[in-house]
Amino acid sequence: MVTGAGPGGGSLKVALVVAVTTGGTGPHVAMLADGCAARGVAVAVLGPASTQRFFHDRRGSAAVSGPDVSGASPPRSWELVPVEIAGRPRPAHDAAALLRLRRLLAASAPDVVHAHGLRAGAITALALAGGPGRRSALIVTVHNARPAAGLAGAVYAVLERIVARRADAVATVSGDLAARMRRLGARDGGRALVPAPPAGAVPADEAAAVRQELGGNERPVVLAVGRLAVQKGFGTLLAAAAGWQHRDPIPLLVIAGDGPLADTLHRQARSAGLAVRFLGQRRDIPALLAVADVVVVASSWEGQPLVVQEVLRAGRPLVATRVGGVPDLTGADGALLVPPGDADSLASAVLSVLDDPERGAKLSAAALARAAALPDEAAAVGGALALYQRIAARRRPVP
Hints:
This protein has 14 helices and 13 strands.
């Protein structure tokens, strides 16, 4: 097991930096903090106070349900130090965050600073620039693709270049991001592992209650889980659902999640007369997966989506878009992969599973086999800690 020894033989000191997040980055940072602390690393998390909610309970599904904000935070040997790094460009706000981060890092002098996301990475790089004495090593994990166009795309292009030029290592969650950062001159930090939290078996009575809530066994269930945002492709999924409204019985499309497109998607479903249930935020994602006849991930881009990992572990037939790191998770046989934004291909793939029980059974078996090969949290923490030690060892005290 990789332990928390620093380059000089003492305890390794690590600071994890995160900006405002609504997806899997928050739980991932909490996982790294827990795992590193358990292995003897002196670790602190620097980020917005709102991210504290991700550290209360990582046992539930992070794909859509988010953290449990109702319970007390479990005991930890690390702390969250508030630094309000916003989720989008805010010049005055960003300048204040940069200055506070610079003071905190200068005072604590960690061996390694590991920033998550382009905004946190760029602000951290600037905060470390020109610092007195020994400069901490900087690792940045790029979790998401940048916007393709417009002002946001231009801003994130600048952030990418700052990270590529100033970080000692850049880790990425998918091959396409790795290739992009290499083209910008980034030092390769390897593939970051972002495993879904472990989940236990679903009790039969819980699955039965969910099935009854959705209308019993009278119609097949097509399930989608995720934040109702443009990236997740729910508009394409609703367009695909129009392709199975003629069937008897009509498959029920179930969407679990909430987000900025909720009203728009409701209107789209009503105007098309679709058989769809919007469930909003749910804490029982494993039970929903247990009763789904097929699960759909229609995203325009994904890194290592937690929901795909959860579907594979549950052994459910999966139809997903061939984007980002999805094919790396599913392998050749763990899902039916279709082009992003193609409603017709998406509908055909879903119907091919519903119409062919044997094909569905093969997909289920392949999903379980693939899940067994996916890295777990211990592997993710071990890989990160090995990277910390390797990069920290390159640094020496500055006179």
